[in-house]
Amino acid sequence: MVTMNSMRSLSRLLGAILCLGAGCRDSQPPPEDENHRAGVLPAGLFLAAPPPAARDVREVKRDPRDGDAVVIRGRVGGGKHPFVPGRAVFLLSDLSLRPCSANPDDRCPTPWDYCCEPPDRIAARTIAVEVVDAGGRPLAVGLEGVGSLRASAEVVVRGRVSVGPAQTAVIRAEGIHVGAVSETASGSP
Amino acid sequence: MRLLPFDYAIRNLGRSPHRLAATVLGSAVVVGVFVSAAAFLHGMDVGLARSGGPENVLLLGAGSEESIERSEIPPAHAGIVAAGVRGIRRRFDAAYVSPEVHLALAVSAGGAPPRLAPLRGITPGAFLVHPQVRIAEGRAPAAGRAEVLVGARVAARLGVRESDLAVGRTLRFERRDWTIVGRMKAPATVMDAEIWCPLNDLMLAARRTTLSCVVLTLDSADLADVDAFCKHRVDLQMVALRQQDYYDSLREFYAPIRLIVWATAGLVSIAGLFGGLNTLYAAFSTRIRELAALQTLGFSRRAIVLSLIQEATVASIAGALLAVLSARVLLDGLAVRFSMGVLSLRVDSGVVALGLAAGLLLGAAGALPPAYRCLRPGIPEALRAA
Predict the structure, then answer these.
(1) Angle ∠(B185,B189,B193) on CA atoms, nearest 5
(2) B238-to-A81, B75, B226, B232, B278 alpha-carbon distances in Å
(3) CA proximity to B326, closest of B11, B12, B34
(4) What is the predicted pLDDT for the residue at A25?
(5) How many CA atoms lie within 13 A of A166 on its CB side?
(6) Contacts of A144 in chain B (CB under 8 A)
(7) Which residues of A touch B222 (CB under 8 A)?
(8) What are residue B135's DSSP bridge partners?
(9) Domain ranges of chain B
(10) Is B119 helix (H, G, I), strand (E, B) or coil?
(11) Which of A34, B96, B244, B331 could disulfide-link to B217, CB 3.0 to 4.6 Å?
């Protein structure tokens, strides 16, 4: 016969199991920023004019300092797929990297991967650019095609350097200008 | 329109048992070739579709997205990825991360000459990320003891008997004997034809210093998170793609082979169709006067053509049934060596339906030209025919 006491014990046991189950989940993800959830890019992200005093990618990567404000110029590329679908992240390569399309006989369909260059040289002259939310997480929106951003496009980015593990630097963009930029050097030094 | 009764068509089939047998067998051969082609291609599709875990992400060396065998990743990267990517599935604090080496080496067993076979160097994490794999006999290989785990289709790959790959027997590759300590099953996947051994043992034996790939199973993370990690860590020179997308790209790679297989089946079918046309023409031409007589009785040419189609279709469907039943018994699950692995022919409900539809089409299409030839003459001319 089910008594009141046994019902209370059962409900306490069920409550304990539920609490244990909730507590046993892997660490909860941090609370999401509204912009991250909605994938909304900040207003004024894309600039009409390039910011002045732009530096090359290889120069910024040589001595990255966490938190430094920087204006960096380059070409979108450094891999077969330089954009991350669904995330505000893309690769920016130094203008000294020679795209396959620079050779008139080359019919490479993805000249922005610089497959004619040695992989180590590509890695040393390519940096990730991201647009983040207040929590430092990349916004959940793709950037390809937004504001004329596409592979091989020349861009100038204003932002801050973020240095992570193994001294790897990432640029947290605050402003992006898409348009032809002047090269400081071309070809291999 | 007044139609001829269905049993008229059935009774006509019995007029010449030899001719009926020829029609049925001819149809069986044509449909059999068609079903064999479909079973081969379906087996290839299923094998590639089931080899990729739905939540698995493959990390490959940059520039090697199309070939695991060409990819190179330093071994330390597996640990960096496991620590750096949040949202990888875990069980009792073991991350679902599998560093692997994929090689094709000449392997011999049971005294047979060596043949190229796919080998995979693994760690215990492989059994987490590849749940399709089940150890059916024995145990997983231990490191440092020259032990291997052999897939169910490896015997077909090497051209040896199953008993030559029993637990306790040995394989030979890289100038060394390896003891089989277990047999595994991973039905309808590429892993079913692979030989698995401890990662470090294989790397040492093959004098290889890099991994081919790292396989992750994601939990709360998605592909974009792993992709973003690879782009942040451009120094690691890795790319991320869904494991299933990798196998889908292999299916596209085999598209010319699919075309050749269908073209061959098509050519054989056309040859069979012409043979059938000859047989049916011979059958119908002896009945020109009978068909003319039916017209005088008020049956239209359309009704007669319909009856001839029924006759031809019943015979061809009988042949198609014979073909699909034989294929189901003889071909379903048959291992065929293909490229670097083994695929299993699959005769499932879809392939059976395709075979029966082919038989139906064969009967309908095969009856039309001879029917047209036999009904073309006018009634008086046809009644005077010999």
Answers:
(1) 60
(2) 12, 12, 10, 11, 62
(3) B34
(4) 42
(5) 12
(6) none
(7) 86
(8) B184
(9) 6-49+254-383, 63-236
(10) strand
(11) B96
Pairing of strands B170-173, B195-198: unpaired
Phi, psi dihedral angles at A80 (to 5 degrees): -65, -35
Q: How far is A8 from chain B (nearest CA, A)?
A: 33
Q: Which two tokens stand for residue A48?
A: 């009409």
Which among B137, B134, B144 is positioned nearest to B180, based on CA atoms?
B137
- 3-class DSSP state for residue A113? helix
* Chain A interface disruption, residue of B67, B70, B77, B234, most A CBs within 10 A: B234
Contacts of A29 (CB under 8 A, 6+ apart): B220
With residues binned 3-state (H G I as helix, E B as strand, rest as coil), the percentages for chain A, rounded to 5, are 25, 25, 50
Enter the DSSP assignment of B92. T
Residue A83: DSSP 8-state: B
Q: For residues B36 and B324, what is the distance between their CA atoms, to the nearest angstrom?
A: 9
Closest CA to B120 of B111, B110, B131, B130: B130
Q: In this predicted structure, what is the pLDDT of residue B144?
A: 95
Mapped onto helix, strand or coil, the DSSP state of residue B108 is: strand
Residues belonging to chain A: 189
- Choice among A29-43, A142-156, B3-17, B204-218 with the minimum mean pLDDT: A29-43
Question: End-to-end distance of chain B based on CA atoms, in angstroms?
Answer: 29
A89/B contact by beta carbon, under 8 A: yes
Predicted model pTM: 0.74
Query: CB of A171 within 8 Å of any CB in chain B?
Result: no
Domains defined for chain A, CATH in brackets: 34-178 (2.40.50.200)
Which among B57, B52, B45, B102 has a CA at the least distance from the CA of B340?
B102
| Closest C-alpha among B303, B334, B23, B335 to residue B193 | B335
Residue B62's contacts (CB-CB under 8 Å, 6 or more residues apart) are A79, A119, A122, B237, B238, B239
pLDDT digits (tens, 9 = 90+) for B258-296: 888 888 888 887 887 787 777 778 778 788 888 888 888
- Kindly give, in sequence order, each residue whose CB lies less than 8 Å from that of residue B112, ignoring residues fewer than 6 positions away: B158, B159, B160, B164
Classify A173 as helix, strand or coil: strand
pLDDT, tens digit (0-9, with 9 covering 90-100), for A57-100: 999 999 899 999 999 999 999 999 999 999 999 999 999 998 88
Q: What is the pLDDT of residues B134-163, one digit of tens each?
A: 999 999 999 999 999 999 999 988 989 999
- What sections of B159-287 are H helices per DSSP? 199-205, 223-232, 243-253, 255-285
Which of helix, strand or coil describes residue B39? Answer: helix
Torsion region of B292: left, alpha or beta (phi above 0 gives left; psi -120 to 50 gives alpha): alpha
Structure token pair of residue A100: 């396959």
CA B14 to each of CA A26, B10, B94, B99, B175: distance values in angstroms, whole numbers, following the listed order? 74, 7, 70, 66, 66
Residue A93 forms contact with B (CB below 8 Å): no
Report which of A72, A73, A75 is spatially closest to residue A99, judged by C-alpha positions. Answer: A75
